[in-house]
Each structure stands twice: as structure tokens, then as C-alpha cells.
Amino acid sequence: MVSVRNVFVLFVLVAIALVSVQAQTIGIHTDATSLVFKVDKSGELRQCYFGGKVESSTYDAIATSGFAAHPAYGKDYVYEPALRVVHADGNLTTELIYANHDQRQLQEGITLTQIVLKDKFYPLTVTLNYKTYNHENIIEQWTEIAHQEKKDITLHNFFSSHLTFQQPEYWLTSFSGNWAKEMNMAEVQLKDGSKILESKLGVRANQFGHAAFLLALDGPAQEAQGTVIGGTLAWPGSWKLSFETDAQNNLKVLAGINPFASQYTLKAKEVFKTPALLYTLSTQGKGEVTRRFHKWARNHNGMHKSERPRYTLLNNWEATYFDFNEAVLKQIIADAADMGFDLFLLDDGWFANKYPRDHDRAGLGDWEVNKMKLPNGVGELVTESQKKNIKFGIWIEPEMVNPKSELYEKHPDWIITAPNRELDLSRNQLILDLSNPKVQDHVYGVVDNLLTQNPDIAYLKWDCNRYITNAGSSYLPANQQTHLWIKYVEGLFNVLKKVRSKYPNVYIMLCSGGGGRIDYGTMPFFDEYWISDNTDALDRIFIQWGTTHFFPPIGLASHVSVVPNHITQRITPLKFRFDVAMAAKLGMDLQPKDMTADEKAFSRNAIKEYSTFKHIIQDGDLYRLLSPYENNRVALMYTLSNQREALVFSYLKQKEIYGNNQILYMHGLDPKRNYTIKEVNNYGMNYSRIAHLEGKSFTGEFLMTHGVRFTM
Ligand code: GLA
After folding, report:
1. pLDDT digits (tens, 9 = 90+) for 217-256
2. Is pTM, for the whole model, over 0.90?
3. Would the N or C end of the chain have less CB density within 10 A of its end CB?
């Protein structure tokens, strides 16, 4: 006999079963990874799996009940929320539930998944976007927030992404530094609360650290084993990465624009689009993370179109600093051509007349050619370069101004500063307020005029030498001062878009006083980047090691300069300086006439040899063999994907007296193919540490399993 009560219970169970059958499961896949979301009984979207690729039939077996996919402040959520909104009526809380989703292929290998969440009560939607680059295994994630409330709402937290992990251990690698010592890697175990990596600098926001991380889940990150997630935020403004372990040792990772002093008033129907976090999950260590990012950058990030030739250039900055004239530059151009460079780059100091740019205290902002130094204009130097059969490039810093300039005299209201405060100068300069459309037009005009007047300029070095302090805009209304950080970046992107649409073929270097602006949001507008003013070869090994974890080496301008110089006192051999610079995009920054005949001959040969193998650096897969953080011998190699050619770089940080027993095991080779070993960049040297290998052939298998040794 079935009692009425039992029948009722039975009915309820069936109903629950029906609901769970209908529950949404959303799988986001690349060739090697899966990210799985489920909608729970209350309608909340939960991240239930993130790991190696799984089939949808196995979701139920592997997926956990998971964690809120995009937690908002409200209901029972007590950790740092991905979203915090003050609604039009003053309500501080938000409760997001699943509304709908859509998944479509944008082109072969690229899929976009959009999941729309909505507040249970208020007309507010949050769209989570996941663009997957399936073959590169990169996920690009951003968020769009919109509402139709009766009045404006205020956004306080607006992170791009929230990822959760449930593991016994988490190891975080960060990339921090400062001017001339960028991209230092440090790894810590995460536990007991929050670890925050952030920038509040607004402009040149990477000076003290980069918005990039490695997160290892199987103990400290290894090169070729273990699960490692690598992520980097595509945004040049202030950023924040938050890693919070909860009371059960679950990890919540937030990435996005730094909410610091940035609350954003959002009008009804306006869409607030966050920048993207680009990330990948590798089950074969951090080496695979790197190769995926490089491949993705080559295929999808604009900057590194392989078909464009890469110019090896000579820059006059360290040759002359501000002290030059036409005759001096013509001599350098002649020397550059003679040494085999493709391009001469004229750096700072060529402009301004009322307040000549003879030092960094004046003239910035006044972009007419300085008539004392260059009476015949920039055009004369362009022509001179053409006569010598090399290209010409020029330095600009169009976002900045010295108070001692005609531009500042004319437009004192165009700079970023807080009212009723003294000007806070850094390198004697101020930042132009790019939230102001008139300033955007002006900055675009600086570039446009220069390139219209000198259509044969082939290359620009776009510099940016300070960050925001005393934030304030005389363009933005008083109640939108906190928008400045975001509006500046939008303004910058507007200018760059215009520049690029009119001048798609001019090469542009992204420079920011060394290390200050390297991110995948800005990079598509540029062809290469300047990671550090520090050209000391030993320091560079570390700087390049860190940088290339995420960013492609071929865009990484790496210059040989004289030692000692204004940064380093360390004297290192010219060959060593070349060997290090050649592992990225080679250039030089010195006065050729001060070089000896031997040094010139060595450099000439190095430049020539570099042109024969730079395609391997440009298109090759990077394998890190011996880390400078762990070994005296450092080694890395590039292998072309057709496995026909590979290039190995190896350095000793210090001289070794008793020999070096370190074996270099090669990677990425075809085990069956025969490889012949040839030393490069050894011109005029009377010794070789691999003479015993020169000209000999070995199978890829041998080189990968037995490796090679260097002699004393
Ligand atoms: C910055 C750059 C340097 C050089 C100077 C010129 O510091 O990083 O390479 O261009 O500006 O002032």
C-alpha cells in the first residue's frame, strides 16, 4: 500500500530528476583542453571541470559540483567577487543565474561561446565570452556587462575572468621587476588567503610587473611535465590578478582591469566590455604553455606576420644620446650601411626649437624638426639612408609633454593631473590626457604629419616614459574622474587604430622606457617591442628568459651596445653580447666609429649570419633547456615545425675553471632525421667549445636522448 505521503515524495523525486536531465552543460574545447560548465538546480552557472580534453559523454563522471563561474557580490558569496555592482536603487548585491548560451564557429579552428547570465531581479546581463583557438589551445575570455535599469548603475569589480581549481597544491610564478631589471621570475606556493599581483600605474603599467602568470598544479612548474596554466591579460592599463585560496583550499583566480579608483558609471544599454585574459592549460609543463602562446601570437595577434621581413637596425641612442647633428648622423648612417644593417633608427633629440630637445627637460610635445641640429630636416636623413640603401626609422613619444614646451604653453589643460595639486613630474614630463578626443586627434596628427611629410619613413619607435600619478582629467566630468584609467586606454587604442589603418606597412616598435608596456592588447598594433633599456648581456639572459615565456622572441628587440654604458659597469665580450641579442631580434645601439676594426668585422659577420637563421627564431618553437635560475650554463633552442633546422643558444654565466659536465638534451627534433652540427657566430675566434662536434651528424633521437657536451 502506498500512502499519500509516499506518493507525494515519489512525485517530487521524479520532478527533480527531470530538472537535472534538462540541466544545461556547456563544454568549451580546444584540441587538447576542456572547460566544462553546468547550470545547477538554482540556475547558477558553475565551472565543473578544467583540464585535458574530455568527451561530453564523460562529463558526469569527471565533473565536480564546481564553483560559481562568475561570482557576483551578493547572496552567500564572501570571497573577492568577479562582479560588484551598485544598482540604480542602491542595492549592493547581485545574483546571477544562467539565461542562455550560444556556440558558433567563427572560422576554421576558432569557436566563440557566449554564455549570458542575468540578475534574478534586476535587468542586468553579464555575457561571458570564450573565444577558443583550437589548434593553439588558447582561450581568450572576456566579459560584457549591460543593463536596462532606470538610472545608471556603478561597477566596482569588473573582472574579465574567474577560474577555479580544486587541488592539494598551487604554485604561482610571477614576472616582476622595474626599469632595467624587468621580468624577474619568482615562484611561490599559494595558501591561506590571497596573493595579489597588480598595477595601479594606468599608463606604462608593466613597470613593476607584468600581467602574466604561470600556475602549476603538480608541484612547482616544470618545463616538460605537469599541469601548468599560463595566462596574460591583453590590456596596457592598470591590471589585477587575484589568487585566493578559500577555507577548503580551493583556488579562485581573477584577472582583469584593476578596480582601484576605477568605479565605472554604466548607462542603460551601454555595454561595458572588459579586456581579455588569454590562457592555456598544458599537461606537459610550462614549455608547452610558451610554445602555444608563441604560435598563437604568430597566427592570430597581428604583430608577427611571418611574411614581413625583419629589419636588423642600428639605433643612435647610446651612440649620441641628445648630442648630434646632421653630419654625425650621416656618418652613422654610412657606417650602418657598411656594417650590413637594414635600417637606421634616429632616436630622441631631433625635434623642438623654442625649447630644443637637447636633454629630457624640454621640448617633448613640439614635433617640428630642430633646425639647429638638422637644418635640412628629417627628409635629408631619409634620402641619405636611401642613398646608402638602408631604411630609415625615427623615435616619437607622442603621448607625452614636457611642461617646458610650446604644446604645454598652448594646452595646459591637456595633461593628466589632479586639480589643486602641484604637477608631479617624472622624467620631467607629463602625460597627455587621451580620454579627451581632441587630444587623441592631436596625437594621431603628430604621427600623421611626420609620415605625410616623410612618406619614406619605414619605422617608428613609439615610446612612453612615465606612469600616471595624481590622476585627474580636465576633460572628464567630476563624477567620471574614475573612468580616466579606462578611457585613456580606449583613447590610445582609437589613435593606434587610425594610425594602423592609414599606415599598415610602417614598422612600429612598442617601447615604454623598457618593459613598461607589453601586452597582447597593444601588440597587434606593433611589429616589435622593447623590453628593457638594459642591454647588459648577463642581465638580458634573465630578462629575455622571463619575457619569452609569453611573448614571441622575434618581436623582442635586443640590442648590442658598448660596455660599460649608462646602465651597466660590467665588461662582457662582444661575442657574448651578440650571442645573447641574437636569441631574439638583433639590433645595435652604439657609435660604430668608436669600434675597432676587429669589432666591426665581427659585428659585420654576426649581422650577416643572423640573417641566415633569423627565420628559425621567428617561426621556430622555443625549448628551454637549462635555466639561468638553476644553472651556470644556460641553454635554449628553437626548432622549426618541419624539424629540418634547429638553433641552440648556450651561455656560461661565469667562467668555469674545472670544466662543465652539463649535458644539453635537445628537444623537438625528428628522432629519425640526421642533423649536422655547425657552430655560428664564431668569426675570428681561435677556440670553439664544440669543435669535437663541428660538421658531425647525429640522429634526432641521439641528440634528444644522449645530448651533447661542451668542452672547456
Ligand atoms: C627611453 C627608451 C630609450 C630611448 C630614450 C630616449 O628611455 O627606452 O631606448 O629611446 O627613451 O629618451
Report:
1. 999 999 999 999 999 999 999 999 999 999 999 999 999 9
2. yes
3. N
- pLDDT on residue 19: 38
Q: Which atom of ligand 1 is nearest to the CA of 395?
A: 10
For residue 414, what are the CA distances in angstroms to 434, 436, 505? 8, 8, 30
| Nearest CA, atom 12, ligand 1 | 348
Give 3-state DSSP helix, strand, coil % of the chain, rounded to 5. Answer: 25, 30, 45
> For ligand 1, what atom is nearest to the CA of residue 514?
8
Q: Give the whole-angstrom CA distance, residue 4 versus residue 146.
A: 48
**Residue 184: which H helix or E strand, with range?**
strand 181-189
Q: What is the Cα Rg of the chain in Å?
A: 28
Comparing C-alpha atoms, which of 283, 319, 317, 305 is closest to residue 54?
A: 283
Distance 601 CA to ligand 1 centre (A): 28
Rounded to whole angstroms, how far apart are CA atoms 180 and 379?
33
Ligand 1 center from residue 169 Cα (angstroms): 42
Low-confidence ranges of the chain (pLDDT < 70): 1-23, 303-307, 658-660, 712
Best mutation site among 206, 395, 565 for ligand 1 pocket (most ligand atoms within 8 Å of CB): 395
Closest ligand 1 atom number to CA of residue 360: 12
> If you take atom 2 of ligand 1, which residue's CA is the nearest one?
513
Closest CA to 99 of 70, 65, 75, 67: 70
Q: Which of 346, 348, 426 to mutate to test the pocket of ligand 1 (most atoms within 8 A of CB)?
A: 348
C-alpha cell at 648: 641552440
Spatial distance between the Cα atoms of 361 and 358, rounded to a whole number of angstroms: 8
DSSP class per residue in 523-569: GGG-SEEE--S---HHHHHHHHHHHTTTS-GGGEEEEEE-SS-SS--
Cα–Cα dist 578/610, whole Å: 10
